[in-house]
Amino acid sequence: MVKIALDAGHGGTDSGAVGNGLQEKNLTLNIVKKIGGLLAEYEGVSIIYTRTDDRFVELSERAAIANRADADFFLSVHINAGSGTGFESYVYNGNVSPSTIAYQNTIHSEIMKAIAGVQDRGKKRANYAVLRETKMPALLTENLFIDNANDAAKLKSEQFLLQVAHGHVEGIAKAFGLKRKATQQKQEEPKMPAPEKTAYDKAVDAAFEFLKQHGVVTQDRREEPVTRAQVFLMLHRLAQNMLQK
Ligand SMILES: [Zn+2]
């Protein structure tokens, strides 16, 4: 089981960055929920959220939630501000495991693939509390600039936010070797080919059609026994019908 801790930046009284009618705390929660939903399509994943609604959670508590759950990976999602544009990701600028760097490389590049056209600001390192205090590999993503009109227009699109989430999930799946769950749909039963009809069957088919057309029989029932009386009646009907023509 791979335990992924998902951290939607800010919340409650802490709106995070604001701009162009958007609040960072709402965008981060939206993206994180999309990430969680997409991750649920993979086998052997359990997801821990630091928040699932609009509430304030201290930075240390966010890290503590992941530490208590003994998560394998911590992902914090943010929106940038400060007159720039594009995407960047962060790991702790102190001692980190080689796997932390590997995860950043993989996830960063999958996100850039998913949001082609967005400026890549690079893979960075910083002394952020959630990165410093988490005991497992941790990554923080800054997904475009809320105070940039072009970036904000993208952030207003649910489709774009889904692409952002998709990129994170592709990266996590690649980093942890996750496999998609088998589809719930039942596989269609392989159809047995119809058995080839023998010449005898075909002759019986033709005879039945002929007799039916001439009012001698109405039903096939080819495997049923017949009495001599029935044979007499059938032959009699046939003879009469033929004579009438
Ligand atoms: Zn933030």
Automatic annotation (TrEMBL):
Keyword 4Fe-4S in annotation: no
Keyword tags: Hydrolase
Record bears the keyword Hydrolase: yes
Gene3D superfamilies for this protein: Zn-dependent exopeptidases
Xref: InterPro entries: MurNAc-LAA_cat, N-acetylmuramoyl_amidase_3
Domain MurNAc-LAA: 63-173
SMART domains: Ami_3
Superkingdom of the source species: Bacteria
Descriptive protein name: N-acetylmuramoyl-L-alanine amidase
Upper lineage: Bacteria, Bacillati, Bacillota, Bacilli, Bacillales
